[in-house]
Structure formats: structure tokens, C-alpha cells
Amino acid sequence: MRWQGQTIDGADADALPGLERRSGLVQSVTTPEFAGMTFHEVLAKSALNAVPAASRMPFRWTINPYRGCSHACVYCLDPSTLVLCADGRQRAINELRVGDEIIGTERQGHYRRYVRTRVEAKWSTRKRAYRVTLADGTELIASGDHRFLTDRGWKHVADAETGQRPHLTLNNRLLGFGVGRFAPPADIQDHDFRRGYLTGMIRGDGMIFHGAYASAQRTRHIHRFRLALKDREALERSRRYLAAEGISTITRPFSAETETRAPMFALPTAKRAEVERIENDLTAVPLEQPSAWRAGFLSGIFDAEGSCSRGVLRVANSDEALLSTTVAALKALGIPCILEPARTNGVRNVRVTGGLPARMRFFALTQPAITRKLGIAGTAVKSVADLRVVGIEELPGERSLIDITTGTGDFIANGVISHNCFARGTHQYLDLDAGHDFDSQIVVKTNLVEVLQRELRRGSWQHETVALGTNTDPYQRAEGRYRLMPGIIRALAESGTPMSILTKGTLIRRDIPLLVEAAKHVPVDIQMSIAMYDDALQHSIEPGTPTTQARLDTVRALADAGFRVGVFLMPILPRITDSVTAIDEVLTRIAEAGADHAVYGALHLRPGVKPWFFEWLQRERPDLVYSYRGLYPGSASEAPKGYRQWLSKRMRPLIRAHGLHTQSEEDHDRMRGILRERMRPTPASAPPAAPAMLF
Prior knowledge:
By secondary structure, the chain is an alpha+beta fold. 29% of the residues lie in helices and 25% in strands. The chain is built from 19 helices and 30 strands. A 7-stranded mixed beta sheet has the order 4-5-26-27-28-29-30, sandwiched between helices. Helix 1 (191-205) packs parallel to helix 4 and helix 15 (580-592) crosses helix 18. The radius of gyration is 31 Å and the shape is elongated.
């Protein structure tokens, strides 16, 4: 697996996870002594992150001085790739920002469904790419490592350079709705689009009145135009378009909100010249209708008279000329439709056929203003589009590509379901925060100590235990440069706040004197994470992290200083590190290092890590692939209950035999929750990375 060529979008701080503009990016720094690393120094607004009450965590507060993420991503797409957003619109991936709401998918019951999610990170790279062409005309430009969802599961664009992996071949069928061969959406500022929109909107929902009122003195001629809607988006677009045509209107209340109806607003004018221009010019159907006019007309008539519910897109009206214009415009743009028979009140429906692909084509080409009509969240992933792969072409040279990370682990790219970068998930779960693979891009909260001191002085602070190391390691290599932990430890101790530290970094030895002093005033709990005890295995699965012996030496130093150090034996790999001999050797080394207790857990394969682990297994231990597929079938992430019980019966007696303490089952499960659950901070804090462990 190649992780290379990654660059941060230096012109846009939003391209970094958690670096919205409001986070106060001060500068980005590279130094010779930390070759290959870039430090992004920010000013934090808060230091204490609250853990949700529903969480299984045995603590309520965390501190994260660093946001470490080398993000050596392998999943990348062309910058022009369209991503489906939660408002139903499709935007180029290079236009997305961290925090934007988009559409992903989740399996719910028997079906995979479209759901709302958010962009959690955005990255750029340069690498070789492939063009994948589908039978409906959809084209995708992606790296060879990128994966798309097919009717036979997730597949990479190309095979691995060494070994084998599931990859696309001709006639594989992708899932989604595609974007086909249609031209890009019309420019909504285009003159023809604007005229078409006003025609559809006003003829569909506008009111024009001419009247004369006679009195004894004179006859008054009244001219009125009014467009009344409940959706402000369409009303605002109409106001702008009228203003561009020289007709100035002001949005006014039209009807008040009731228990059953939303409030309505209107654009009125009573100027005769403007009313006549609207009637005779702006709403006239031209004999020659450019594509932009047709797209604008359909956009306007849909905003005025259209609906999309239960997967059916309709435009309802009783004006036969208007219906005929609608049908003609749809057919001209390649959108299939039928004109349904009239109801008893004379209203007929123009119904778009062809399922979700046709509806998404309509939305993309016409760009309606009312977003509530465009959403597809909750819709099952089914498609009548022909999304067979008909071509896979390697493109010459390297090119700029974009990757995003989402809450669901996927997103909709050019109308097909695309996996986001599992390399990010792999690095976070493995906590590769030393070496180039994890900490080449580090966000540093340089003012964290000052902010923390201020927060700890608040009268509302209850002096509850604060955990460090639940998201990113506080003693990663960056700490060697910025030295934030001494100030954090002092601030917590001086305020009377207990602390808990989880690390696999040996740099904690620097602060042992400070921790000893802090422990005189508040409880200090220290845990060392040591997953692998075979040097070759550790190098293969956890490249770049401190060696096992270095971490054991750190346990000894902490124990000698008087701390009851716990060791996290996670993950235990079935049929690799779970033999009595392997466990006995591990516990012997832990006990000799002076550890007080041990916490263990079987391998846990979340969706983002599972593909990576099976690729590693296929490469390093192909003899175990069949066994692991039995232990972790399909979407299963945990080892079977029977295996976990078996492991517990094996581990507990051995732990006791080595004189180590073990916690109750309840406490044990809660401690394992520290590394299993994803932390969700309060809205005031930046979203942290996923827990740093593979299990």
C-alpha cells in the first residue's frame, strides 16, 4: 500500500480537519529536526471537551492538545467529481468544506439507504489515476486504490501492485444512480435560464389582475401582479430575477402562520408598465427555446407547482398549454415523462418516469430553488440506471486529486456510492502518531494551557476527572517540540482536578517528576498501550510507533516512580497472539516491567479498518484468511461472543497467576469503551479524530 504525495491545501484552512476559519490558524511550520512534518499552529477557543452523557466512557471530560493525522490517503477523486449534498444539489468535491452536510449511505434493515452525513476532513494529493466509464455514460476519474460499491461488494479501481485484492473488471455493476451523458447544469444567472424560470414560476403560481372601477367622478383602472409562496428560496430567486429585468419588488407578508399552514410571503407590484411587461414579455413562451430557457422553465414550474414525494416527481396544472410546454421541455432535455389523465377538477400531472436516476437528472439540470423538495435521505439504494463498467483506462502522468472523510465512511460521487479513505481510519485506529505515516500533518493548539487555566478557574467547574489520550496521543512526537503537557499537568493539579493519561509514547518519561508532584495533590492514573510483543509483527502492523521494549521500559520507570501503571493488551489477534505461550510471555514481560494491572480485548474490526486488515492478512498470513472470514463474516466487526468468552477464560487465570490485577467485568468493559467509542465533543470544540486503536 503506497501512502505518498499528500499535501495540505495551504490556501484553505478548512481543508484540515477541525481547522475552520474560526479556529484561528496562526501559521504552518516545518523544521529540519522534524523532517516530513508540518505543524499547523492554531489558537484554541476551548480546552475541555465534554463527553456525551450517553457515552460508555468512565469519564466526562477530555483534553486534546494535538490533532495528529498524516492522512496518507489512498482514496482520491478528480477535483471536478460531483458529490451529492444533503440539500439535493451536487457540488464539485473541490468546493466542499469541512462540516458541509452531504449524503452517504447506511444499511438499515434489509436495505442500504441514503442518509445525511458530514464532511469531516478534506485533503489533496498528486498521483496516477484511472478513468472508469459506465454504460450510462457516467465517468469517474480516481486513483487505483479508490473503491466503489458494486453489486458484489466494495472493489478497488485497480488491482494491487503486489498481491491481489477485489478490483473492478468490465461488466461489474456499480450502485447508485449515475450522472449519465447529460451536459453540465445550466448557469442559473444565464439570461435565458432567468427568463425561463420567471415564465414557469409566474405562469404556474403568479396572479395578474386588470380591472376598472367606475364612480360618479371617474373610472379607476387597477393593475396588479402578485407572486405568493411559502418557500422563501423560490421567492428570493424570483425577486432577484425580476430586479435583473428592471422590476423592483419588496417581499411582504401575505398570510399568517396557522396550526395547519405555514406563513406565506408575496412579491407585489401595482405599476401598470411593470405588470404589462411581466404579462406580455417575461412570461411569454418563445418559439425557439434554448436549452437554458427549458431548464429555467422546468425549474420555475417545479418550484411553483411541482412535488417529489415517495419517489415520484410530478408537476400539476390544468393549463393545457403549460402542460404541453412542460412535457416538451422534459423530452428535449432527455428526461422521460408521461402526462397523466385529468382528474375531476381538470388538473393533470406530468410525471417523471425512470426512477431515481431520472429525478436526479432533473434536479441536476434544472437547479430548482426549493431545497426541501430535492432531498433523498431515507430512500433505498435501488437503481434502474445501467451502471455496468464498460471501460477502465489508466491515464498518463500524475494529476491533482481530492479526498474527503465522512461520518458514514462513504459518499455519492458522480451518482455512484464511493468509499472515503479507509487509510485515515486505519491510521487513527492504529494510533500511528510517530513517523511519517501518521504525524506528518499536526494541528497544535498552542494556547491550550492558557485556555485551560481560565476554564479551570470557573466557579461551575466540578473538578471531575479529565482524560488525556482518548483521541490522539498527548505524548506523540509533536510534544517534544511544543511541550504542552507540563503546563496541562500543572494546571490540572493546581486546580485540584484528577487526571488520567493513556499513551504509547515514551516521551512521558520526561514528565515523571512533574507527575509525581501532581500525584501529591490529585489522583493521577496512567495507562500504557502495548498491542504487539513480537518485534516483526509490531513493525508490520504498527510501523512508526515506539518499540515494545521502549514502552515496557517506560512502564518500569513509571512504576519505580510509584504509579500503579495499567497496560492495555489490545488488540489480541485470534490465532496469532492468543496462544497460552504468547499470552504467558506477554504477561511475564508486563509483570517484570512493574505493571499493576492489565486490560485486554479481542480484535475489533470497524468498517473503515476491516478492508485494510484483510489486505494485511492476505499478504502476511494468507493461511488465516479463511479462519478470519469465519470469525468476522460480512459486516461483523466483533469476534463472536463464544470466542470472547473463551479468551476471557484463558486470560483471567493467567493475569492472576502473574500477580497482576484485573478489573470487574463491568469496569473492564467500560475501560475497553475508552478505545472503542468515537469521541463527540460539545459544539464549542473542534471534532476530534477517531479513537486510536485497531481493536
